[in-house]
Amino acid sequence: MKKLTVIALTVLFTHTLSAQDLTARSYVEKTAIGNKLGTAVGYIFPCKVEVGGFYQKNAEFMNAQEITERFYEKEFAGMYLNLPLKHYHKINFDLNVRTGVVNGQNFAITPSLLGSYSPVKAIKMGVGVGARMFRPTLQASLAIRLNKLY
């Protein structure tokens, strides 16, 4: 009975989410310390503002050298806000601000300028530049709009 309830709630939750304008994003970020892998899920409002949550962690398999900095970011989780700057039909420019907790103890705000290209309505490929701890960062991402898949 427990499994049936869990399955029913999962189907109901998935159906509710699929009716919304949700986006799922995976990204790689190159920082001065090393490479980071992240994932984010957000809601896009009709005015094209996107709000959501993200989780990012250190990509050990991509970093060739041993990180020797006293303070470095192992994980970063929190909320993000994506504000549209200029939107064309397939090319978009957005201001992305991520705020959250680093390593479970420090608060950080990281702004980025993101450019993206949408070959189809459901997929968005992006690149961006940003700042973290007053150092520049580079970002590459792939986003999927979940309600545009069908």
- Count of DSSP H/I helices: 1
Helix content: 10-25%
Low-confidence stretches: none
Question: Order of SSEs, N→C?
Answer: HEEEEEEEE
* Largest sheet: number of strands, sense, barrel closure: 8 strands, antiparallel, barrel
Give the overall shape, derived from the CA principal axes.
globular
Strand order of the largest sheet: 1-2-3-4-5-6-7-8
Overall pLDDT score:
82
Euclidean distance between termini CA atoms: 32 Å
SS class: mainly beta
Number of strands: 8
Based on CA atoms alone, the radius of gyration comes out at 17 Å
Residues in β-strands, percent: over 45%
Features:
single chain; 150 residues; mainly beta; eight-stranded antiparallel beta barrel; 11% helix; globular
Please tell me about this protein's structure.
The structure is a single chain. This protein is 11% helix and 59% strand. The chain has 1 helix and 8 strands; from the N terminus they run αββββββββ. The relative contact order is 0.18. It has an 8-stranded antiparallel β-barrel with strand order 1-2-3-4-5-6-7-8. The longest helix has 17 residues, at 2-18. A hairpin with a 3-residue loop joins strand 5 (91-102) and strand 6. The protein has one helix at residues 2-18; strands at residues 22-30, 35-44, 50-58, 75-87, 91-102, 106-120, 123-132, 135-145. It starts with a helix and ends in a 5-residue tail after the last strand. The model has no long low-confidence stretch (mean pLDDT 82). With 150 residues, it is mostly beta strands.
